[in-house]
């Protein structure tokens, strides 16, 4: 026997209950509630065929809320009951929760209704649309999704539209396994349900292009740092020279300045879902002391050429002087 009736949520619909399945309504447990949403309407049926001469009373818990002697309404509003004597409840608020019970007395003062069925009404607010927040990864690569949820609300989780086993407020997953999956929670109470917007794990984001900063450390060392603009988890760094030869791993690369005077390095930073490489960068700690090239021609060509020219001039001058002296002597 089922005693819980779930009300659908449309606020204008007036619900009439079939009470055949509700046995005697005298037990007070939460479970025999007939649920209705705040703002909706419902009619509590009178399961008795009224005669014109009958007196009708409706009670909410211990107090009478409606009393009609024959056709004259003594307590309550005329339109509070319909033509069959059923009680019409509109614009429900939580304080209208309670047990509603009818009583029918005939003109001789006899209770002719007998033990008429009462209804325990429980008015609940509709649930709010939930949101899912994502906590960044734990160290062991798990991601927690947390659903905002009120008290006494039932949660289910959806991954890409499929319902999951878990029912709790927090859902934990290995982030790597759900890189692009959409998670939402479905929050419900007996009168309504709402689904959150989907979210994805945020432990692993697509990488953005890193850049290399150069730091002259100490007298003769240079440190290259691979910088990323956002915060990422579980990054892997690799360093390459311009010949694409692997030079090292880790966020920084330290070298003796003299060894890398003209070497340009770039870094490759990757996480589980993407990777990016930086532009190459060279150290600026020690400028080469002497330019190596001029107009693309090795400096030694110029030095050699200059020296050769000087020697030629000296030799020519010497030769000329010697000749001139000889001429004068002659
Ligand atoms: C993630 O959820 C698990 C299980 O609910 C919990 O034990 C853990 O503390 C949570 N971690 C974080 C970082 O919130
Ligand atoms: C939540 O709803 C499901 C499906 O209606 C039901 O099986 C489950 O028992 C409910 N859980 C709670 C805690 O109310
Ligand atoms: C997750 O949601 C986004 C946008 O809401 C959609 O583009 C994407 O296809 C969804 N992914 C899956 C696996 O359903
Ligand atoms: C959300 O939960 C309610 C109550 O359990 C259920 O009726 C509804 O079908 C669920 N919605 C989805 C999309 O799973
Ligand atoms: C360069 O290195 C020194 C010592 O390691 C450090 O204090 C400084 O912040 C670094 N500068 C940059 C720009 O990284
Ligand atoms: C960077 O490293 C990742 C991970 O090892 C690799 O998959 C990717 O191809 C590399 N990217 C480039 C541009 O070399």
Describe the structure.
The chain is mainly beta. The protein folds into three domains: 14-124, Immunoglobulins (Immunoglobulin-like, Sandwich); 132-195, Sandwich (Immunoglobulin-like), CATH 2.60.40; 211-282, Immunoglobulin-like. Helix content is 9%, strand content 38%. It has one helix and 26 strands. It has one helix at residues 299-329, and strands at 14-16, 33-37, 41-44, 55-60, 63-69, 72-75, 87-89, 98-105, 119-124, 132-135, 142-147, 154-159, 162-163, 170-174, 183-189, 192-195, 211-217, 221-227, 236-241, 246-249, 252-256, 264-270, 275-277, 281-282, 293-294, 297-298. The strands form seven sheets. The chain has a six-stranded mixed β-sheet, with no helix packed on it. Strands 19, 20, 22, 23 and 24 form a five-stranded antiparallel β-sheet that branches. A hairpin with a 2-residue loop joins β5 (63-69) and β6. The protein is rod-shaped. Residues 1-28 have low confidence and may be disordered. Bound molecules: 2-acetamido-2-deoxy-beta-D-glucopyranose (NAG) (6 copies).
